Amino acid sequence: MTELFTAGFWARLVSIVIIDLTLAGDNALVIALAVRNLPRRQQFYGRVWGTAGAVGLRLGFIFIATFLLRIPFLQVVGGLLLIWIAIKLVRQQGGESAEGHVRQGTTLMEAVWIIIVADAVMSLDNVLAVAAAAHGDMLLVIFGIGLSIPIVVWGSGLLARLMNRYAWIIWVGGGILGYFAVQMILHDKALVRWIGTEQPGWGMPLALAVAIGITGLGWWFARNASRSAHPVEEA
Q1: Quick check: is 149 in a domain?
Q2: Are the C-beta atoms of 153 and 115 separated by less than 8 Å?
Q3: How far apart are CA 127 and CA 38, in angstroms?
């Protein structure tokens, strides 16, 4: 049984909380992007259920982390999926009318599904850090992740409100997801063996190019939506 009052227990707990909070920014960003078009009441449920599902998957990943990260090109596939999710999320901006009506195609279940899938993808290369800090103690892992949940839910709610007010945050958020997706791809173990290095000279420019490209797509989608909502009347 875990000794709750030993220095080692508290040191490992603090390490796990710090790791979780470091990763919480990514989670909050995905959640905010996914729920921003829902009615205000459903946004809360989307954040809670999406976070709960993502935490459950992350705990499962920690149990099988070593096996998962041995699968060749798994992170490459995950990174490509995350890029697709980022484009999908910034594309939703184009589904809003100029009056700010909610895009009807976005449902609570769709938002929860996006949150869970995106978090599952992003946690592939992070679960080992949590597992290592816990030294095999799953009580520590569960406790540490549980402490970070309120911050993720609150942070995503704040971001969602800001995104509804400032559209450019949506575009930048999608670009950030694209940047992390490229980084994930480049750190895939099988790909590293193939290209011979974890940090190729073209890695950073490629990640930045993808981030800028997705941000630009978000701006372009929103611009087209604005034109559709306010067509120029012919003289």
Answers
A1: yes
A2: no
A3: 30
The whole domain housing 83 covers: 7-229
Sole residue written with tokens 């063996």: 193
Question: Does residue 43 contact residue 164 with C-beta atoms inside 8 Å?
Answer: no
Tens of pLDDT, residue by residue over 14-62, are: 777 666 666 566 777 888 888 888 888 888 888 888 888 877 877 777 7
Whether 1 maps to a domain, the answer reads: no
- The tally of domains found in the chain comes to 1
pLDDT per residue as tens digits for the range 65-77: 656 656 788 878 8
DSSP the chain: ---TTSHHHHHHHHHHHHHHHHHHHHHHHHHHHHHTTS-HHHHHHHHHHHHHHHHHHHHHHHHTHHHHTTSTTHHHHHHHHHHHHHHHHHHGGGGS-TT-PPPTT--HHHHHHHHHHHHHHHTTTTHHHHHHHHTT-HHHHHHHHHHHHHHHHHHHHHHHHHHHH-HHHHHHHHHHHHHHHHHHHHT-HHHHHHHS-SS-TTHHHHHHHHHHHHHHHHHHHHHHHHHHHSPPPP-
What's this model's pTM, rounded to 2 decimal places?
Answer: 0.68
pLDDT band at 215 (very low <50, low <70, confident <90, very high): very high
Residue 12: predicted pLDDT: 72
Structure-token pair, residue 33? 């992007």
